Amino acid sequence: MWFLYTAGHGVWIFSICPLKTRKLRFLLPSRLVMKLGAILVIVTFLLTRIRHGLAACTSGSIRLVGGTSTSEGRVEVCSSAGAWGTVCDDYWDNTDASVACRQLGYESGTAFGSAYFGQGTGSIVMDNVHCTGTESTLISCTHSTNHNCNHAEDAGVRCIGKNMTKINY
C-alpha cells in the first residue's frame, strides 16, 4: 500500500510492505532521494500535527470550553479559516443557547453572558446572534461576523436533556 504526504518543500512517499521491504523516500526539490526508516514517517507526521494544531476543526462546528462538565461552557465556533473563536453575548438568549446545545446533541440550553465561563482568546467569530429555534446549527442562525465586543462578553451555555453524543470537531 502506498501513501503520499505533502508538507513544506517536499513530498513524502512511503509504502507499507512486509518488514524487509518497507521503504520511505523523501523527494526534495533538488530531486535528492533519501531512504529513511518507517519511524521517521511517524515522527514527521506527529510534528506536523503539533505544528498545525492537534484540534483541527471543521467550519461551523462548536465546542464548550471552561465549564465544570461537558454540558456547559463558553461557546466556541470553528471559523471558515479552521480556527476556534468565540461568540459575543450581544442579543444572546435561551433560543440561541438551545440551538447550540441541540447541535451538540442535547435537548435545550440556558444562555450565559459576560464571559461567565471565562474569557476566550483569539477571534470573536459571531456577534448579534439571532436564532429562530428551528436551526440545526448555530452558524445557520442570523449573525454578524463583524463585532463590537471583547472577550469579557463571551457567550456561554448550560445544556440540559439527554446528550445524543454528536461529534462536532
From TrEMBL:
<feature type="domain" description="SRCR">
    <location>
        <begin position="62"/>
        <end position="160"/>
    </location>
</feature>
<dbReference type="Pfam" id="PF00530">
    <property type="entry name" value="SRCR"/>
</dbReference>
<protein>
    <recommendedName>
        <fullName>SRCR domain-containing protein</fullName>
    </recommendedName>
</protein>
<dbReference type="InterPro" id="IPR001190">
    <property type="entry name" value="SRCR"/>
</dbReference>
<dbReference type="InterPro" id="IPR036772">
    <property type="entry name" value="SRCR-like_dom_sf"/>
</dbReference>
<dbReference type="GO" id="GO:0016020">
    <property type="term" value="C:membrane"/>
</dbReference>
<keyword id="KW-0325">Glycoprotein</keyword>
<feature type="disulfide bond">
    <location>
        <begin position="131"/>
        <end position="141"/>
    </location>
</feature>
<keyword id="KW-1015">Disulfide bond</keyword>
